[in-house]
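ok, trying the design again with the full structure, not the truncated one.
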C-alpha cells in the first residue's frame, strides 16, 4: 500500500489557497493508501511567532483537517513536535544537506529577503532538512503539496538518494511529489501576480471569514481589461485566478469552467464564483466550529502521536544503525 504524507504549518489563518492547493485533497488518498497528515509546528517556529498564535493555530489546523473529511480511523493525524523522532532524525540528516544547496531554496531566499540578516534564524535556513525528515521518517511514496513546495520535495529526493548511495539502497524511501493539475497556486485577489499566503495576507480569503466577507472579497477582486471570461494567465491574471478557484471547487477542468462562463459579464461571473466558494466553505466551517467546541481533535492528536511515533521510530533506528550509531540496548 502506498504511503502518503503531507503537512501544513500553523503560522496563521488558513487561506483558500491552502484549502485548494493542499487540504481539500488529503482525504482523497485515505481509501487507497496509508495517509499521514501532520501539523508542522516546529516549522512554524522558523519565523517569529507569538506562543498563543502557534498554539491556537495548531488547534485550528487539527479541526480543519477533520472538517475536510479526513477520517482519523483511516488517516494518522498528528502534531510534528509530539513525535520526537522528527527532531532526532534532523540531527543526523543536517549533515547531508549542504550550505550551497540550502541557500538556493526559493522559500529561504524569499522569506529571508524580507528580514534583517541578524534576525534570520538557523531554522529558517535548515527548514528543508527538517521537512525531509518529516517525509523520510514515514517511508512516504507520495507527498501532495502546492507548487511552492516542489523544490523542498526535490531536495528531499536528493538527500534520500545521497543517503542510499552512501549507506545502502534501502536505507530510506525516495519520495515523489504530487501537485494538482488545477489550483496548485492560487493568487492573491488584490494582486494576482503574488501567491495567496497566510503569513503575508493581502487579498486572502480565510477559511474562517464570515460568508458575507467571502462574497465581498470575491466581488471586489482585481479583474483585468476587456470583458471576456477567458483563461490567460499573462494578460488576464485576475480572471484566470478566479476561473482556477471555480474549477478547483467544482472539480472540473479550466476548459469546462471557461465554457460555462461564455457570454458572462465580469460581475455575473464573480457572483457565481462567490456562490461556489460559499457553498463549499459554509458547511466546512460549521463542521470546523463543532470540532473546536467539542475539542474532539485532542483525542485524535494523542492517538496520532502514538501511531506516528511507532512508525517513525522504526525508520529512525534503521538510519541510526546505517550511519553507525551504537544501539546501547543491542548486542
Ligand atoms: P506561509 O505564508 O506561512 O509560508 P502558506 O500559506 O504558504 O504559509 P504553507 O503552510 O506553507 O502555507 O502551505 C500549506 C500547503 O498549502 C502547502 O502544500 C502549500 O503548497 C499549499 N499552498 C499554500 N499557499 C497556496 C496557494 N496560494 N495556492 C495553492 N496552494 C498553496
Ligand atoms: N513546508 C511545508 C510544510 C511541511 C511539509 C512537510 C509538507 C513541512 N514538512 C512535509 C509536506 C511534507 C509548507 O510550507 N507547506
Amino acid at each position: 500500500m502506498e504511503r502518503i504524507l503531507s503537512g501544513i504549518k500553523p503560522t496563521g489563518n488558513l487561506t483558500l489557497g491552502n484549502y485548494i492547493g493542499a487540504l481539500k485533497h488529503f482525504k482523497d488518498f485515505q481509501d487507497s493508501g496509508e495517509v499521514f497528515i501532520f501539523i508542522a509546528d516546529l516549522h512554524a517556529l522558523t519565523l517569529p511567532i507569538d506562543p498563543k498564535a502557534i498554539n491556537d493555530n495548531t488547534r485550528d489546523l487539527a479541526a480543519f483537517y477533520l472538517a475536510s473529511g479526513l477520517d482519523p480511523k483511516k488517516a494518522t493525524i498528528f502534531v510534528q513536535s509530539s513525535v520526537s523522532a522528527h527532531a532526532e532524525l534532523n540531527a543526523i540528516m543536517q549533515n547531508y544537506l549542504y550550505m550551497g544547496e540550502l541557500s538556493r531554496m526559493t522559500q529561504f531566499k524569499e522569506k529571508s529577503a524580507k528580514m534583517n540578516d541578524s534576525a534570520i534564524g538557523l531554522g529558517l535556513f535548515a527548514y528543508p532538512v527538517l521537512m525531509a525528515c518529516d517525509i523520510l521518517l514515514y517511508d512516504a511514496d507520495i507527498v501532495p503539496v502546492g507548487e511552492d513546495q516542489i523544490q523542498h520535495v526535490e531536495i528531499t529526493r536528493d538527500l534520500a538518494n545521497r543517503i542510499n548511495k552512501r549507506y545502502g539502497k534501502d536505507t530510506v524511501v525516495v519520495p515523489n511529489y504530487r501537485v494538482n493539475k488545477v489550483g496548485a497556486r492560487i493568487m492573491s485577489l488584490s494582486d494576482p501576480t503574488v501567491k495567496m499566503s497566510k503569513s503575508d495576507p493581502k487579498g486572502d480569503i480565510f477559511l474562517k471569514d464570515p460568508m458575507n466577507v467571502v462574497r465581498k472579497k470575491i466581488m471586489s477582486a482585481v479583474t483585468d481589461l476587456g470583458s471576456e471570461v477567458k483563461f490567460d494567465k499573462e494578460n488576464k491574471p485576475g480572471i484566470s485566478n478566479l476561473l482556477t478557484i471555480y474549477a478547483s471547487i467544482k472539480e472540473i477542468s479550466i476548459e469546462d469552467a471557461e465554457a460555462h462562463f461564455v457570454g458572462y459579464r465580469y460581475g455575473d461571473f464573480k457572483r457565481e464564483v462567490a456562490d461556489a466558494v460559499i457553498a463549499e466553505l459554509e458547511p466546512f466551517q460549521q463542521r470546523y466550529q463543532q470540532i473546536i467546541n467539542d475539542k474532539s481533535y485532542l483525542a485524535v492528536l494523542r492517538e496520532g502521536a502514538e501511531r506516528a511515533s511507532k512508525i517513525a521510530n522504526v525508520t529512525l533506528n534503521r538510519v541510526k544503525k546505517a550511519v553507525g550509531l551504537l544501539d546501547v540496548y543491542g548486542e
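Keeping the full-length input from now on. The longest helix spans residues 266-294.
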